[in-house]
## 1
Amino acid sequence: MEELKRTLEKYRRYTPGSDVGLAIAVILLLGVLVIPLPPFLLDVGLAVSVTSSVLVLMVALFITRPLDFTAFPTLLLITTLLRLSLNVATTRLILSHGHEGMDAAGHVVAAFGGFLMGGDVVIGLILFSILLVVNFMVITKGSGRIAEVAARFSLDAMPGKQMAIDADLSAGMISEGEARRRRKELEEESGFYGTMDGAAKFVRGDAIAGLIITFINILGGLAIGVLRHGLPFGEAAQTFTALTAGDGLVSQIPALLISVAAGIVVTKGGTEGSADTAMVRQLGASPKPLAIAGGTAVILAMAPGVPMLPFMTLAALCGAGAWYRYKYEQKIDSEVDEAPLLETAPTEPTPADLVRVDQIRVELGYGLLSLATGEAAQLSEQIRATRRNFAQDMGFMLPVVRIQDNMQLDPNAYSIKIKEIEVGRGELKPGMLLALDPRGGVPEISGEPTTEPAFGLPALWIPEIMRVEAQGRGYTVVDLHSVITTHLTELVRDSLSELLSYGETQKMLDDLPAEYRKLLNEIVPSQTNVGSIQRVLQGLLAERISIRDLPTILEGIQEACAAGFRSLSHIIGHVRVRISRQICEACTDSGHGFIPLLTLGPDWERELSEALTGGAEDRQLAMDPVRLSEFMRALKKGIEDAVNGGYEPVVLVSAALRSHLRAIVERIRPATHVLSQVEMHARARIRVVGTVG
């Protein structure tokens, strides 16, 4: 048994379907062009030609999309070469042994010459001519034109399709692996149609070669039969013409099948499913065409001299199909009318579904479901745009936002949850718009007073017809989708550090450019690990600092670890110095062109510094609670005064106090940045707008 297995393994690479087997098969085909074949091998070759053409046609019929048959252009070349080789072999036998009778070129040619022609040479030549015209003028020419246009359109559409894939990837709708698969499929599609455009020329050339070979056989056979073998002209014409017509038919029928297969593949285009399924589904998609076709058949059946039975049979079939389709559409419509707007539990939840935690979720009352469903739904599109903006601004893609209904909420209320915990809630007025005064205060137009949910600003609910009037007075008018999206954006900004998971951090590191892979390999795992990098990135995001410049951040981590820093606050502090230009740019007031600084008075600076206790790696702020409360009140007043003066202040302190003061500022006004003196970039424009005294 073991010996048999070794023998099979030895010869397996020479079997059909292997690389060596295919090479041997092509060499044999080329050898047939110069080596005479006996009639028996010629019969085998012709049988293979007919059977393989039927197989190719069936595969073309049942593929669901053209890219499922990417080997077709190669098969087209091989089958064309097979037919031409067999044509040459048949011609050799006809011219050399045609005077011996109808079996000179094998039994397959004799059978086609006798059965299909009915013993009449003229009929055989006419059939051959018709097949040639159908193949050459109709199918091959049409398939070639379609392949040419498809190749051109596929090439022109490639940049747009690539941009669509990149957009879906940026929006988080698809994974990186799915994006690579789509890009590869797009390249295969373009290459396939381009190859099909050239492969169609094989079929066209095959038809021309068949016509030329036929005339050579007839003229050469007559000359050899009459001049060399002394046959009477009538007998020579009968024998050689019959053999030539049989050879033409046995070669043109497989060629016609292959041409039909090529036409089916290139005309399939974007049709989903196999050809039979697609045609039946689309022809019977509506009852009206079936009913009209059946009525037309009935009218033709009543016409004088027209046979009634076939037309009435077709009319009955079309009528039955139309009736079935009509009843089926009624059933579907009734099921749609009875279905709920949102199906919250279509299937029995699995254990994984029960324990899964949604990172971000927006829950809507039933009165707001139209915002997320139907033709007017814009909430999903705005949320996708928000995720793209976060990816560009903050450097990582937010988790997918799940939108669902919640019947426990008030009809017009919505709730925003992060990791299953509610972080915000609001109430909207369907059919109304939210008007705000950018200068502060309540807009001076008629409307229903309310509070803007994201920032707590006074606002008014106004009807749609007052939009133009409100905008004309300089007020900001916001639709319901934007109210939810803005609220969601602000809440997510406050929770960015929680949303950066270990898996997302690992994905960001895996997507680093190749030139930074060596840096990452030096850091992980010798100096730090992915979890520590995640905590550093979370510390930056907690202060709304973008992590888009990940290579520079990694360089800062590497330098901090090499300098012996082990505490998280020290590593983050060193990274902040490395990206100081980026931080200062983000803190620059766009309206004034400088960083508005709020400094600490010398007394508070000294008192806070003296309150630091512990070692260098683990320092804590141990300040008297009464004095800490006084400092917080003074700091809050200083921030409010700067804001009332039209500035977005940045608190400036020493490097030792920065992280501790940030913890205090976060309780007062989380959006306010706290910078240390060493983080001020040399080219940053600054101005002191206040002092905490």
## 2
Amino acid sequence: MSKISVIIPVYNVEQYLSKCLDSIINQTFKDIEIICVNDGSTDSSLQILKKYASKDERITIINQENKGVSSARNKGLEYANSEYVMFFDGDDYFYSSSAFDIAYNTVIENNSDIGIFGYYNLSDAGLYVDCFYSKFKEADPCVGANNYFDYPIFVHDKIFRTKFLKKYNIRFNENVKNAEDFLFSLMCYFNNPKYSLINKCLYVYRENRADSATNNHINCIKNDAQAFFALYDLAEFKKQPLDFQLKIANRFLNAALWYIKKFDENLQLVNDSKILIKFLKTHYAPDKLKRLKAYRQLSNYERILLLHSIFSIRNSFNKSDKICTVLGLKFRFKRRSKKHNPDILNSQKIVKEIFLELNNEKQFPNITPLSENQNSNVIVFSFDNNYAKYFSVALKSLISHTADNKFYDIIIFSDDLSERNEKLLRGMLPENFRMRIYNISQIFKNTKLTKQTKVGSYWHINSYYRLFIPILMQQFERVLYCDSDIVFTSAIDELFEVSFENKLLMAALDSITPTIIVECSEKKRLEQLKKVLKLKNPELYINSGVCIFNTKKIDLDKYITKIINALNIPGLLYPDQDILNIVFENNIKYLPWKYNFEWHIPNLSKRDADLFFGSFREEYLKAYNNPSIIHFTSNIKPWTSPQGIFAEKFWETARQTPFYEEILFENCCKIKESTIKNLNQKRKIYFNYYKYKLMTALTKNSKKERYEIKKMELKEQIRNIRHYSKL
């Protein structure tokens, strides 16, 4: 008995078959049998199979007439003689050469019936992760009535215990042409298997192949409907709660909508969807079905099409253009290409001028270490006069967590710090702290810096000043740079002892990194990192809010050249951060997230945090439970959102600064202004109030109470608008 059987249905995949077989044969795990079921191929697929079988005795070829993928997989199951079985498509391949090792060892260690691993989708745009497995909260979830919707529907991303499949006679339905893997996965789910989660991407799935089922719209909705009918006939399905059954039905309804939209709203597909609609009407109560948005859309689709034929404005399928329909005539309008932010472009130009002068003159201004204490820990901050009050909180938190025998040299890059704010900041310093303030526009004799304040939606020109650290501070062993919107929650002395390991920069990965490799919706951001920034490893993109420069090891000539080249790029989203990622790529040592915990993750991006997996998730949880530096990333700050997670850390420290009342006053005014602005902009509040008022008067069923509550909520919002308008 082999440890793993690999079942491969083969039908006219001559173009991809060799790569598929090579990826299996060259695995480090050798105790396998490879069962290739030739399903009546008419191309050279069979000849390729015979060629490989003559070289590898583990390959078994089974020939049959063309009966479809379900029949081929079932035939393979009949021949399988192993502990575990995996299903492989003939046009796919393994991404990892140790896939069998990883999958088999995990299920054996946990004594699991099914192991679930990640996979990459391969499309025309390239590789990206379709990471269903990352939605699991634990490696071995308790399977319940609703857990199925966190469980992937495919079979190519799993390893199955053979005894489990045979014990419950789980096979593919040969009468079903679409969604056969969905039904197979459901049959496994109904029999309560024990799962193992494998937090690695092992497989590459080739999507949107020209002759694949998902790319062929003929009878696609009819075939899907037949799959649901077959599912409904199963006794196990009928035992499931009604909500579960309706969610499964909704999955098929959404699939029908997807087919209709993908294939240009083909009217025949709309007619085909009526088969499924009619079946659902026969077997489920109308009031239950009407709760399903997809059901309502499909039921009214012909009316919607009629209205669209008269007048409509919509995106083209690839969203590149607008299509306007007027009385049946269609007009296509090209979308204008998105212009680059003029503030960012202008600021890049100004900073570039300075670096060009430095490159030509080869003479660099210098900031020297403190003569009285050469062993001081050096931290650079950069902010404008308005931000001084928020920097005071970062400074106070650092002082509070620093021992009296540790010395700190605080260096500030600022062009407009007032005497009053400077005096208040210096008054906060204990004996073991020194503060030095440098006007960058005076150092480089460039008045344009002070005139260029805005760089982006909430960035200031000061954000570029960290780029000057290697030039201005060559005599320092290392320099820690920190953004001013942070608080220190513990001592950071160990940061000044960490070895660079021959790297030039130390920083933490940006929070975008885990999601960019697991979330398809981040595809545009991934393309920006690859095509605009030209990063070879975008999954190693760093956040520049906390970073340590290995100043003495940086070659300034190369550094300035790279900075100038980076400043020529017109599509920077986060200018300073993007530039540092370009300049120091492959020369970065990665710090634990606890030294740069981005507060927007638990506050604004909880869904992204749920997608963190493996070592990312472990690192995130460690940082969340015990952060050393909390970085108030995003335009939402604790002083505007005091209810946010970790906001109390900011306010506890702010009360101990001389700027506390100023922070309160400024943000009370801001909140009042933003409230008026936002509420007045949303005039639909008024419209919705009168809508729910009318619905409450006309409705007599159970929804009346819900409408009444909504009406009162809107009425309260209108009262607030009027109140703030009078202030």
## 3
Amino acid sequence: MSSASEPKFSMTVDMSVLEALGINLYSNAAAVLSELVANAWDADASEVSIRWEGTEEIVIKDDGAGMSVASLNGRFLKVGYQKRATEGACSARWKRPFMGRKGIGKLSVFSIADEVDVFSSHEGIVSGLRISVHDLRESIKAAKPYYPKEIDVPSAYSKTGTAIVLKKLRPKRADLTAAALRKRLARRFDVLDLKKPDEGGFRIVINDSPITYEDRQELKKLEFIWEFGRESIPDKALPPNIQRFVFKDTVVDATGGWKVAGWIGTAKTPTELTDDLEAGSLKNIIVLARKRPIQEGIIEKLDFSRLFGNYVTGQIEADFLDLDDHDDIATSDRQRLIEDDPRVLALQNFMRQRFLEASQQWAEARPKREAVDAIARYPKIRDWINGRPPWQRKAAERMIGTIATLEFEGTSATSDRHALFRSGILAFERVGLRQTIEDLQHLSTMKAVDLLPVLAEQDSYESALYMDILRSRLEAISSFREISHADEKEKVLQQHLYSHLWLLDASWERASQSETMEEDLRRIAPGLFSLDDEGKERTGRIDIRYATISGQHLIVELKRYARKTDIDELAKQGAKYAVTLRDLLEQQGQPNAEIEVVFVLGQKPTAKERGMLAEQQYIDQQLRTCNGRIVYYDEMITNAQKQYADYLEARDEAKRLNQVLDSLI
């Protein structure tokens, strides 16, 4: 121990430097500890260990060359010490390119700790000192030199290398868990080679456990990876089914000899790169120089707007950004670079080109991978693809894969994707038909055998399209059934019945209406369509329509749900409709036309004069005079549902595709 009158250690620093480059420069523990790890690397250490004791203290210890009292004063305690200018470009023993350059990294510890103990052993001599941020501030304010306190060296720190103990931690900046620190340091250093100590190896150990590729969280998320020059990441560090690519071009500038190494990769979804609370956001590409970060992210600098950019993470090694004979272009916290430097611009242009190259490969490979996953999840889709003609299967797989790659937001994402699968399958049927016909147009002659694929595709498409129509109609029928209030049923049917006559009969798929015919009927029989059931003038409510279907002429009258009717009155009305329409059709040259009159009722009509006949028998007999029939609101919906369900079950092709789409609901 030295006497009080002759302090062994001294430190000189201005308050503004302390505030700007120490206390306020670094905002988290991972960045601070990165500076200390870099110092251990530069000291030729084979191992730097970090003991993370919650919020009590942090111990960083290495087995490097250590520092003498002179080195502590002249290097460690000297802010702005230019290591490369004084000691050369590389470390003494392992010739490692120095990571440190500015000489201000040691100030980073003051951003998370108010008390710092430093112990170092060099050539058998051990030294210990304590720096108090409070005392340092006071000395600076008084314009006096600051003398760190000399302290005894515990036996645990008296052997080799340097140990730094951070105490009186600041909770907000030192609130990382050991697991989080491990994940973040793993991304900040390219020193995971795990060579033996006597071969120049270097490893980072946290709480007695070395950092390995297993701690690289972004590697675990990857589906695709592009490596520069060669495959450098061990297979065991990557997911088992990852697809690997290699960028052959690694030269950023041939004249300057600027090259890159490292990798970029894409995750399955963008959210997989942003949801790791311990590792932080993985959605960036860290740029390293001399195996440590020199820029935290480069993606936003590439002006790359393609979807590919949302899925990317990575690590680029560009040592030419930190050359000893070039200007220092890194900011003090080593999170950004001077953006207008030629080296930075060259790297950005180079990476933009690699992004274009990778995004094209990704756009081709990703749908194939997603198609495999989607087909595995939905066996019915697999059956549908296998049922396509051989020449269409790859295109069908690509379509399914493309849909599977799309991003949907919100709680309805799954149902939205399923709906798109359904629409895509139906659309594919139609596209397949068009392509077949286009192929036939290139034939110089057409034979019957050439027409068979067209007919087969036409049938497949029509079945698929018709099946989807049937499905939508079944859904509409189901919604009708859920309406319990009589007036609401009447309102809904009034709005939809005449444009959807398939509700009355499943065979009336293409019923067409004719306003001209209705005008002619009104002209011949003015009261036919103009009066309501009570003989009063109508006020915009039209309850009678004329339509044709497959040569059959229909008159459909919709009665109010609560309207009570008499079968004799209905028969007279029906006869009037039928006779009037028959006369008009004969005038148009259509004698013997088939005419049917349909009454849609909410209530069963009364049959007062039925005599000995059963009620329904009498009703049927009366309606024969006009070839009429009655359809009831509730029965119409039930029967329509049954007819369409039976139809779906009856058609094999419709049933097959129905099963495919049902699997997506």
## 4
Amino acid sequence: MMAGTDPLGLAERTSIEQRRLFGLSRQRLVGIAGLGLIILLGIFLRFYNLGAYSIGNSYYAATVQSMLTSWHNFFFASFEPGGSVSVDKPPLGLWFQAISAYFLGVNGFALALPQALAGVLSIPLLCAMVKRQFGQWAGLIAALVLAVTPVTVATERNNTMDGTLMFVLLLAAWAFCKAVQGGRFRYLLLGAFLIGLGFNIKMLQAFMVLPALYALYFIGAPHRWWKRLAHLTAATALLLVVSFAWVAAVDLTPAENRPYVGSSANNTMLELIIGHNGLSRLGLNRAALVGAVTPTKNSLPSPPAMSGQTGAARPLPLPPSGGQPDQLQPGLRPRAGIPPQPPAGPGGQGGNPPLPSQEVGQAGLLRLFTEPLAEEASWLLPLALLGIPLVAVMLGWKWPLSEKHLSLVLWAGWLLPMLAYFSFTTGLWHAYYLIMLGPAIAALVAAAIWALWQVVQRHRWMGWALVASLTGLTAAFQTVTLRQYPSYATLVTLAVGGVWLVGLGLLAGSWRRTWLANAAIVLVCASLLIAPLTLAGLTALNVHPNVALPNAGADIGQNSPNMPSPLSAFEKVTLDYLLANTTPGSYLVATLSSHEAAPYILATQRPVLTFGGFNGGDNVISVDQLAQMVASGELRFVLGGQQLTQRKPQIGDWVSNNCAAIALPGAKQVSAQRAVGSGGQAAILYDCSHR
């Protein structure tokens, strides 16, 4: 053997290995850098001027304010500091907000912070899941789509809890995937536990992912079928225990020792789940199927005592206020051809609520592709839907199913049932609920692009034709949707079309040049992200957001001042009088609903009694109990008027017969401005301590 020879090719193999390792290292660095930039974009869209213009939805904000006054109110999620009635949601999402507000004060930033953080954390989590399923570039695409989906930006900048719920459900999906990949039962239990936590954020909304996750485990877990069933049965038992633990604690507590369950027909949390947060969301007759039970004397709580004064209630030190709230609940942002509406609370049932069709459109197959919902989450929905059969064809059939097959089961199983619900339900829901579609749309778009790239590599012209047709249809849909924004439509449409055409042209000329094909696919993908990114940016920059019912897009109304007052003129006059004529240990005032009560709670941190809970329909207190509270000195003043007399005739008659109307100083000039909760009639302040 001659000196210097390398008969085994060790030097060449070493060089190849070094180049391979260098390539992998470079690819990994590119992936890390790309994800970092996407996360920064997500942070900007969610945190830019977060909470600067409003305290958010005043119903939830007042609840957080009340929760900080005592452990009793914290646990039961009491809407007002006196502990008379609870909010109509479970407490976990509000607990996160209360913890934030404890350290940062009750202000817009503190209340929106948990949702914004959850939204940012969802981006790398989804990226990691899709990366394992379809590769690094698919993971980055999914992360970017989720980061710029307008409805996710709008909702995660608000104090509604849906952003937190979406992150918890994504964690649950990750746990189910881990359980399938390794057959580890403990991850299945973790996933069930997380869904149970989600139930304690938004109740049955959390269960919308169960069909996808259960199908994923039953089809993909590496166990015999009977063992999979046994595992899912055990996981379901844990899920129900976690979901209903707080519910049981509330319903097993005597009514006199806890708040009235807001928005329930019979003062039980179980009826709230089945009724207002269940059947009503499906468009079913709640009264017929559940029974609109009129509470008896025993089912009503005792006259509300100050929760901070009871032995069971341990006061929490109040945090700094962080400034007065900037805004209550502005009207709905006008859509194309849809007039602005008066304020409405989170249930859409205020004194003058918007009709369902004005916020979510008419039920039907095209509901999510037409106004007013098309701009929320549907920008890439055509590509996601068309990508499902394309990915299935590219993967082919094999058993057991590969990880890519199972990912299609997961994300299609997540998207399609929700799509059917949001398209056809006639029940009570809001546009921001579409945040639930965000992860599945993002993952399926990434999978569709992966499949298109596979076709391009195998069949050049067939791949080009598929890329042109699928992305072209999506771009055309975006162009139609942009027409409601005339100020931006032309420029954005030109950008979408120009980048798309350049990408297709490069793809057609990329024969045997992989780098050029890669660049072409990137341009085509980028063209489809221009429109949703624009709307996401307009949402983040909107200085007049709809804080009651968050939605995507720019403010195109001119009716809201830049920094509106936290109280109306009538409320200011009324509040000054109430503060001067009540003692701190008593109720400040009693009102019909939370819409009237919230501004006073936020301004003073004082108890404010609501006769009818959130929308005036609850039976929080009886006439006899009202009389007892007045006699004991707990309550002196009542805000009455035509709406109170109509909704609560017995209470309205008692107030008219036993209380004296007060002529507030300066109220004549401002009383006509009072509309919220009073049916457009001026509210009247009554003094019940004398006639």
